[in-house]
Amino acid sequence: MNPAQQQSASPNYAGLVKFLIGPFLETPGSLRVDCELHPRQSRVWVRLAFEDPDKGRVYGRGGRNIQAIRTTLEAVAQTAGQSLYLDIYDGEAGERGSGPPRGDRDRPDRDRPDRDRPERGVAGTTRRLPTPDASSVAESLS
Hints:
Blueprint: H1 3-8, H2 13-21, E1 32-38, E2 43-50, H3 55-59, H4 64-79, E3 83-90, E4 119-120, E5 126-127, H5 134-141
Parallel strand pairs: 2-3
Antiparallel strand pairs: 1-2, 4-5
């Protein structure tokens, strides 16, 4: 397939981004999307910017919304045989913003007990759990 045919077969990433992010914005016209396709490397860079007040709704709690959008865009790119990079820029300054972390890498494991956290007791009272020492652990194992 020649490069002209390959570029025409590429998905409309700008339209897809506007479709996915537009409902989260108070003023959808403030969304700016720039897509850069490198056909030889099969890479797509999608850069977007929007107003600061909309940032919370676009990211969602813990970055869930933007992670779902990123996953959707990456899946579309993968079906087209491309890899996709999504960059989010601050709306006012035009500089790259610090988005939420990807995945669960920076989130603490919620199933692991935390010794510094007090245990909830009856009627909302709290009490500290004693920190076990080596001798009490050895006694409980024998």
